[in-house]
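Box 3.1 A note on notation
Throughout this textbook, protein chains are presented in two layers. The first layer is the amino acid sequence; the second is a token string describing backbone geometry. Keep the layers aligned when reading.
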Amino acid sequence: MPKNLTKNHRILVTLIVTLLVWGHVLWDHLHGGIPAHYLFHNKDMPGIPNWMGALMLPFFTWFLLYRIQKRTNDPHAPNSLSKVVLRFLAAFVVAIIISVCFMKGIEIPTFVLLSILGMGLFFPLYFSEFLLGWVLGSAFTFGAVIPMGFGSIFALVCFGLFVLGRFVLGLFKATT
């Protein structure tokens, strides 16, 4: 595995994501129309069509890969590319599990999401690779826009929890 994320890697991954998302939109268009997704699964809310996510997802991917590249290429940061890939895959698998559970009507996603928030106290779940894994893993089921918005808010909450967890741990260390 390469040691650093390069601009060529970013171009390749963004190109693959672009081709996949537009291939999915084209497939939907040719097989009955492009579906729309609704916030909170409520049809009274305005629908967000998949083509809108297909426009936004390549830029979102490029931006997150830029942030990952910037962090992993920092010689003072202990983030290797293999750790980044493992974090991405972990978030990708969790997003797929939640998506499958949602499609099957299984009610465990709430438990999984609360568990993730608990882990956010101890692990930096706000890193860009987690967000990218979440968005790409859940985009097939929920479209791209809803996971981008929800994931960004979730990353912000996880950042706050991580900072809070570090603060509380610092208080315990100071008293011992």
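The beta strands are 36-38, 47-49. The mean pLDDT is 88.
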